[in-house]
Amino acid sequence: MQFSQVVGLKDIKKHLTQMVLDNKIPHAQLFLNQEGAGGLPMALAFAQYLVCEQKSDTDSCGECSSCQKAQKLIHPDIHMTYPVIKKDTKPPISSDFIKEWRNQVISNPYINEYEWLQSISKEIKLGNITREEASQIINTLYLKSFEGGYKIQIVWMAENLGEVGNTLLKIFEEPPEKTIIILIAENLEAILPTVISRTQIVKINAIDEKDIIEALVNHHHLDSQLAEEYAYIANGNYRKAQQLVANELETFGDDLKEWMIYCMRGPSTDLIKWTENKHTKSREYLKKFFEYTIHIFRESLSSKYTDNSLAPHVSKSEIPVVQALKKYISHNNLYQLIPLIEEAAYFIERNAFTKMVLLNLSIQIRKILK
Ligand SMILES: [Zn+2]
User: Fold this and answer.
1) What is the distance in A from the centroid of ligand 1 to the CA of 55?
2) pLDDT on residue 110
């Protein structure tokens, strides 16, 4: 991946290339990115820039043999760690899923964690970066570089390291020579402070709307009016813009619409059926669904205060839900609702009985909104 293929983020690209040109590359960096802003594509472009044999001041060449290997995610000195799930009795490591990883990331480096985990398992499981994977990282980084240049270790969704991060502190602090470590994360609070303090943070904020418009017109061949609409809704999240193009957000929208109708009607067989149906979904799905619900609640509140010509950050098909919720949502009740939803997400993530949590949450939402 070249920097030119990463959507927007001109300043970050400049910052990264400049540190290479100045030969002042921190040995451990943490790319803290907003969801859909492109932390992974940026790390891949940076790694390729580091190994490229004919780089310019602004980008890798894309043609030398190092670039070709980097593009196919087969460069022997670019190592990748990502959350995986258990498939047999032994603890999983990233390389168990290398084939799937290459397929998914080459086809779309803007893939999110939920989509990645879905692509490797249809079962209800959360991803993990295991202690065994951490040992693998240490062993690999102490080996000599295969091609004589930099060795690069990328850790995608480093939140999944959890306590395992402790076993990597030494290598983060004093990695072997010519070793560059790049952690990518969206949620700083989920990373051990001891890990954070050993890295240099590169903040990757939401992508500029004009850059998303340009990418949608160039890569998805949208007309400029539709590209503008989608870029506005995506609000700096390129993955969301892609989903709008592919119409992939529909199912969350329909689920939420149904839920709110049943919630407001109060306990009924419909509501119970709805919770039973959600009970069969993966925890990752529910986590995303709760995030989506909070997003729509917030948009409903903000649509109360914006003038009508300014549509909230939602798609056309979501406007009716936002309009309907607008009547019930206020500043006060939104700040009661968000912790409740987050708490439900927390319980479900930790194995609570999904059906009961959802039913209880529905009843509380009804009380608050009424
Ligand atoms: Zn090159």
Assistant:
1) 6
2) 96
* Contact yes or no for 275/359 (Cβ under 8 A): yes
Q: Which residues of 28-65 are buried (b: 16+ CB within 10 A; e: fewer)?
A: bbbbbbbbbbbbbbbbbbbbbbbbbeebeeebbbbebe
If asked whether residues 40 and 176 sit together in one domain, one would say: yes
Could you list the mean pLDDT of each consecutive 10-residue stretch along the chain, which spans 370 residues? Answer: 96 97 96 95 98 97 97 97 90 95 95 90 81 96 91 97 95 94 96 96 96 92 85 92 78 86 88 89 82 90 71 74 88 93 90 90 93
User: Tell me, what DSSP letter sits at residue 84?
Assistant: B
**Distance from the CA of 50 to the center of ligand 1, in angstroms?**
9
Q: In the chain, how many domains are there?
A: 3
Instruction: Report the pLDDT value the prediction gives residue 308, as an integer from 0 to 100.
Output: 55
Residue type, 97: F
**pTM of the complete model:** 0.76
Cα of 349 to ligand 1 centre, how many Å?
Answer: 43
Query: What is the distance in A from the centroid of ligand 1 to the CA of 51?
Result: 7
Q: What angle is formed at CA 278 by the lines to CA 276 and CA 281, rounded to 5 degrees? A: 125
Enclosing domain of residue 353 = 249-369
Domain boundary among 177, 204, 231: 204
Cα distance between residue 51 and residue 53, in whole Å: 6
Q: Residues 6 or more apart from 177 whose CB is under 8 A from it? A: none
Distance from residue 65's CA to the centre of ligand 1 (Å): 7
- Please tell me the distance between residue 53's alpha carbon and the centre of ligand 1 in angstroms: 5
